[in-house]
Amino acid sequence: MRKKIAILGSTGSIGTSALDVVARSGGAFEVVALSAGSNVKLLAAQARAFRPRVVSIADERLARQLKALLPGATKILCGADAPSEILSRGGIDIVLMAISGTECIMPLVESVKKKRRVALANKEALISAGQIVMELAAKSGAEIIPVDSEHSAIFQCVDGRREYLSKIYLTGSGGPLLNVPARRFDSLRRGDVLNHPRWKMGRKITVDSATMMNKGLEVIEAQYLFGVDAARIEVLIHPEAVIHSMVEFADGAILAQLGAPDMRLPIQYALTYPRRADGLAKHVDFAKIGRLTFKQPDYKKFPCLELAARAAAFGGTAPAALCAADEETVASYLDGRIKFSDIPKVISRVLSAHKNINDTKPSLGDILEAVGRSKEEARVICCQ
Ligand code: NDP
Ligand code: MG
Fold first, then answer.
1. Is the separation of the CB atoms in 137 and 112 below 8 Å?
2. Which of 21, 27, 49, 270 lies at a 20 to 30 A Cα distance from 368?
3. Ligand 2 (ion): which residues have CB within 5 A?
4. Is the pLDDT of residue 365 over 80?
5. Separation CA 146–CA 61 (nearest Å)
């Protein structure tokens, strides 16, 4: 039977790749809902091509524009709660979470409560509300299948043998600034910072790759997804981006997952799991690559790695504050309000001022409040 799929963030880098996977699946999936932020034209084109029952867009003005472009049969929702409203409806088997940032917290909570399979690309929601989300998933029996390439790799290597897992090697290409000295960071044009050597991704995650905050966030993401503490996760810089991560088991055996750096692979796996469908990406040409290399990350050059580790160690609402501060600070950098080297400084100030709630388990309300407050604090600092 065709699986019914909802794609939140359908107009972004992950969303458009996911629709490509669906289009090439030979009819294995039916797109029942699409949700986007602002790209009316692309959302309308996607809705005409995939004919979902419902679509949503961020505000009313955009919804009016969308209405003019779409046939009457498609229901149009709008507003901040629209993605959650889509998920409260029945008739959805799989939800692909591909909205970027902390906006995804409520949709993720909604999905796991409803026992949907979650194909999880968004990382900020899990990092912010990890304990709550994992507990809800355990209670409802909802499956969370990671789409982030490293976590998909770890998921594939662990393959149900979590009790034997002793260590994770979380690999990363090193991002666009791996070989650029820190003293040159502020003289780079934003276009250079956004030019990732291996992956084509949205702007926020590409800046996160340049600061290496992305890898710091991924350590926390792995902690929640695989129940492993930070001491057992080693970040390895692997510029060839062929090994997407590795796991070591109790007996010392190490398994790695390899493949072309193409996000359609982990997206497809999350949708078809436990089946494997026909491949969409190029084959890896090992002879051409020649060798695979590894080195330790430079924590001094990339202070965001340490900031993420600090937030994870604080626990409580600190990871939510980290995600929110990063989101706002990266947006300010992209708008030209701050320099590249200001990014870790602003996040550090927000984290230092954060009144952490970690004596008891923070509630969802505490987490959402920490997100709102930290964004506001980062905004104020960036405007100074
Ligand atoms: P993009 O910026 O390319 O896309 C974000 C999507 O979210 C767009 O469709 C955007 O709509 C939509 N969106 C934004 N705000 C809202 C809202 N309020 N309601 C509904 N939709 C909204 O990001 P990516 O695709 O690169 O990344 C998405 C997530 O996946 C991130 O959390 C990222 O960390 C994670 N990820 C991405 C990877 C990648 O290869 N890109 C790899 C691993 C993880 P619009 O464009 O119409 O405004
Ligand atoms: Mg990743």
1. yes
2. 270
3. 148-150
4. yes
5. 34
Burial of 139 (0-12, 13-18, 19+ CB in 10 A): exposed
Confidence of residue 196 (pLDDT cuts 50, 70, 90): confident
Q: What is the pLDDT of residues 129-141, one digit of tens each?
A: 999 999 999 999 9
pLDDT of residue 356: 87
* Closest alpha carbon to 17 in 112, 102, 170, 121: 121
The two beta strands, 243-249 and 254-258, are antiparallel
The overall average pLDDT reported for the chain is: 96
- Residue 315, pLDDT score: 94
Sort 70 into a burial class: Cβ within 10 Å, 0-12 / 13-18 / 19+. middle
Distance between CA atoms of 354 and 382, rounded to whole angstroms?
16
Whether residue 73 has pLDDT greater than 90: no
129 Cα–ligand 2 center, Å? 19
Query: What residue's CA is closest to ligand 1, atom 31?
Result: 100
pLDDT value for 84: 93
Read off the pLDDT band of 361 (50, 70, 90): confident
Per the confidence metrics, is the pTM higher than 0.70? yes
Which residue from 35, 59, 99 has its CB within 8 A of the most atoms of ligand 1, so it is best to mutate? 99
